[in-house]
């Protein structure tokens, strides 16, 4: 939006002063003002958003009323909805929501127009006070001080954040938590929200399991949720409603134990509910400038240690036990060892493994999808299954694509494979950027050429054909209609670029390390374009930082039941997302209050306002305030 209006704010203030002699009501005055609407253009338009399709002049008057009265956007939305006469006076056909107000201010009002409205409103406020109009429509005080006033009063920005954070967190909890449904009876003693509060406490207590959380917090409650109730609720959530147990389920179950559904059914059931929760999170942030689609996404894998050996001790081995050879030693596997535990890269390391797809780059980093990783381990012999990376990527994209539009996917070298490339390009039609191993004579020759040529900054090979072989995991070459002759899938581009762009010294005594990347981008990529494009790969580090925050939130539990294990990791991802969305919402609140906070369309993501530790502390306070009895009452 731009302005070529020659009308000064003082002219509108003079109008208002004259109208105050006729009306003693601020909304009537603003409704009758002759606004210079022709001097301000709504260049951003409505963007196809029905919720923001309000008349531009009506919103002009509404925001002028907001500033004169000193209302917040939420207060304004509630006031206009409650008092329908305001809709009539400002020419509105319905009350706008807080989201519509935010969209209008950020997308349709330029900085110059916002400043114009503030200047006019300040003048109207003064003349109204001079005229002795102190109706309820004139709120006292300034609820939106500018940064210079904050600095002069020595009020830190974090005080403003602290005042708003509890309401944001509480609202998010109310919105997100119902997405997880245990399916228990409506008359259950403890509702689902109490179950998820207990799960939250497990995460916040740093490696505490469900029993420890119960022991630690039941002293503050007169009617605490028992840890057995929590365990049963999670198991019920992770069991498909229509799951039919088979003889195989019972044959692998210990005596007097209810069988556990297969891991694929458990994962799908919990994933569906996680996706529902993420969709609810995205609703309040989609319309703001701080979240844009299509998004850039990163895929990676993290591990949660399991500290139980898969091998029997010498004293437990029976003569009839079948032995296997591992690293030159004879061992006997435990019969009931959790099938989803994978052997780590180091001998004696055992862990559950999970892949995630996360939004990275400018947008708020959110985990959109979680997928278990299943590898056949040496203690399983030939009986174990293995998830191919192509299958993992496919399932992640299936989940995430239901939530957002994805433009580019980045992953590390572990995902370098024709099956992965084929799934991304042909099945999901997204671009990818993945480091490539120099696993052919031609690629090794190119790597040597670019390293030895002192004048060459980068080397790009365009339109290289990618073929999928008959033995490619997860891809059915015979029935896949997207494959052409000889298993042709699509064209790729190889890019040899400096591994460290600071080392562009081409003197003979210094060698420059090079990295090889592959992409399916269809447009022509020049050597200089390759340098800029591959530099975006650094955004993938968001997912590494994410894991450092999520894994400490995974509680330590003794259960081998995969419903408990997978849900604990997924719920920790949910807590991480809730922190990110809370921080995003606070940034929107701050940017609405102070125009010089916030970010332009092409600027990087702004710094975190609310540290994770503060979010967790606030969550505990809210849980105590709502669900716990005060210590003296319990005594």
Question: What are the salient characteristics of this protein?
Answer:
single chain, 635 residues, alpha+beta, nine-stranded mixed β-sheet, two-stranded antiparallel sheet, 22 helices, 43% helix, 12% strand, globular, disordered C terminus
What's the gist of this structure?
It contains 22 helices and eleven strands.
Give an account of the 3D structure.
The chain has 635 residues and is an alpha+beta fold. Helices cover 43% and strands 12% of the residues. The chain is built from 22 helices and 11 strands. The protein has helices spanning 9-19, 26-32, 56-69, 73-82, 84-90, 98-108, 111-130, 147-153, 157-176, 192-204, 210-217, 227-237, 247-251, 263-282, 389-401, 418-427, 441-452, 527-535, 541-550, 562-593, 612-627, 631-634, and strands spanning 295-305, 324-326, 329-331, 341-343, 350-360, 367-373, 406-411, 431-435, 459-467, 488-498, 514-519. The strands form 2 sheets. Strands 1, 4, 5, 6, 7, 8, 9, 10 and 11 form a 9-stranded mixed sheet that branches. A two-stranded antiparallel ribbon has the order 2-3. A hairpin with a 2-residue loop joins strand 2 (324-326) and strand 3 (329-331). Helix 15 (389-401) packs parallel to helix 16. The longest helix has 32 residues, at 562-593. Mean pLDDT is 78; it is low at 46-52, 139-155, 250-256, 501-510 and 627-635.
Q: Spans of 5+ residues with little confidence (pLDDT < 50)?
A: 46-52, 139-155, 250-256, 501-510, 627-635
What oligomeric state is this? single chain
Principal-axis shape equals globular
The helical percent reads 40-55%
Mean pLDDT: 78
Count of alpha/pi helices = 22
Number of strands: 11
Main sheet attributes: strand count, strand direction, barrel closure: 9 strands, mixed
Task: Give the distance, in angstroms, between the N- and C-terminal Cα atoms.
Answer: 63 Å
Percentage of β-strand residues: 5-15%
Radius of gyration: 30 Å
